[in-house]
Recover the amino acids of this structure.
């Protein structure tokens, strides 16, 4: 399922605002920003390959649903996308990931020390978009963004800490994801509503809706990282297993008896062979982790829907947000 | 020269505000914040060993000179100190420094990935201090802080890039230091004036004064890192040489003939022996780099003084700022 045309139509506005946000600044940093955002290759030649722009789209759709013109939410949309890219640049260093959207990660091009600088630049530039906005809702939007980044950083801390733990509960896992992924998607929706001038109560409902959506998104990502089709996702299927990520299916299976003990054994020691990966996949099936992961994603989507139902919206606005939510949570790549 | 008593008297106020700023938050992050800020050892036991708090002191002194009560500048003082500590935590990863203020650096305790998170947390928490202030000068103060961080990041980028270059001019070096060190000290002074409600013009003079002070401070640091007394600084004398840092004396000597060519040769290849370090020191003396470094520090201090003279101040306020500047630029540790 690729991005429906009605949302695709927003992308030129978003891209123009992002380009404007990094048009000026210290040259090596803005050059690498253009690479990370997908407009240039590592040699500075025009190229394509950035992300899906889910967060700025969510920000704009929330603002439009709350009665604003899309342009009114652009400072928030660029802010959340730049903050998202900051987190990706730092995450790729932390996780030693070599590829992102099928392209070499930033640290592989400029080295880890400079990639730390690049992330810090993207973060700062992102925050400035909101800090410099004169809209009445901008201070609330900025406060939400700060709160989201703190939760994101704490979530990333927990995610790294989980690598050394055999014993992560599903509750701990979902709390980690709520920070690492949910907080920024929640902020994207809340910021859109805030910039549209919505009430605090409505802003908070949008934020909570976006956060649930983010959780459902991540659980779907866990599913795709384990059982997804490599051609569709650009990730090697079971890449998450080869890297021993503590995804939801793994966390679930580790708690099962006796399959969990066998899995725990496999997750120890040296990097795994393809045979090991096949054994892990077999154990996951045995415990019902596949169906469970689907169930959790569905439950989180339903919770998001229930929050959306609490927001007072025109019928067509609600239908549009539901369509966006379906795209986010039911994507196959 | 230790911190004069008149400035020392401000420290309890600053420490209390800093403790308050990180009193709450995700536990592993606030625990490491307490370590980095010098209040606890790595096991969480009460300890001492943080930095000199130059930036918050500068912020408060600027505010007081501009007619405010010290407490009015506290949000700015905590913001600049937290941002400074963010930059130290990331710099220590980038430079692979093992010790800071005689204690293990953060990445050596929690690993590089978590130290990246810790820096991001300190940065965010620092910005929030100003973003949540309701003082009329707070938006200008926050804008100055963002601008300073972008320049600091660009300066750090240049500093790392210089490591691979044989050919850095003194002008390029000073531009790098203006970003890496000068920008945040400039912001500290400007933010103090902004929070005190000073005019834009006065705020800008304070900012430029602080930036020159920061440059003089760094050049003095280069001097001490090469010829300073290890007992006073806690750094091994010539540690900068052992690590092949492109400090001002080195940049100056590299441009001299024929000593520069010999120095260039020594700075290539594998890590240096004590003999190599002695040879470098001899070459630096030969080119007059020691006296030149002193001269540049003096010139920068004089430029700072000239900027201070342009600010309309009560005589005792001016004298106090000059005393602070002397402490910053003439310190022996």
């Amino acid at each position: 399922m690729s991005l429906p045309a009605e949302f695709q139509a927003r992308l030129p506005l978003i891209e123009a605002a992002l380009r404007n946000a990094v048009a000026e600044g210290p040259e090596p940093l803005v050059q690498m920003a253009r690479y990370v955002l997908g407009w240039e290759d590592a040699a500075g030649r025009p190229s394509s390959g950035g992300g899906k722009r889910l967060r700025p789209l969510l920000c704009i759709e929330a603002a439009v649903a709350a009665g604003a013109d899309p342009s009114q939410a652009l400072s928030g949309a660029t802010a959340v996308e730049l903050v998202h890219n900051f987190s990706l640049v730092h995450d790729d260093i932390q996780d030693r990931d070599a590829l992102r959207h099928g392209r070499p990660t930033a640290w592989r091009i400029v080295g880890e020390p400079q990639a730390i600088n690049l992330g810090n630049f993207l973060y700062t530039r992102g925050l400035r978009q909101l800090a410099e906005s004169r809209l009445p809702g901008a201070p609330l939007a900025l406060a939400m963004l700060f709160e989201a980044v703190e939760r994101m950083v704490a979530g990333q801390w927990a995610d790294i800490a989980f690598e050394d733990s055999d014993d992560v509960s599903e509750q701990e896992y979902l709390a980690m994801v709520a920070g690492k992924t949910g907080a920024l998607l929640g902020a994207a929706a809340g910021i859109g509503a805030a910039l549209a001038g919505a009430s605090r109560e409505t802003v908070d409902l949008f934020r909570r809706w976006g956060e649930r959506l983010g959780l459902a998104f991540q659980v779907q990502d866990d599913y795709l990282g384990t059982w997804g089709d490599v051609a569709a996702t650009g990730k090697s299927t079971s890449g998450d297993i080869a890297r021993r990520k503590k995804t939801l299916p793994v966390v679930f299976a580790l708690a099962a008896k006796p399959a969990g003990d066998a899995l725990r054994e496999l997750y120890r020691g040296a990097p795994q062979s393809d045979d090991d990966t096949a054994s892990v996949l077999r154990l996951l099936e045995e415990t019902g982790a596949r169906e469970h992961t689907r169930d959790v994603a569905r439950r989180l989507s339903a919770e998001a829907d229930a929050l959306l139902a609490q927001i007072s919206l025109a019928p067509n606005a609600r239908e549009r947000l539901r369509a966006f939510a379906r795209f986010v949570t039911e994507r196959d790549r």
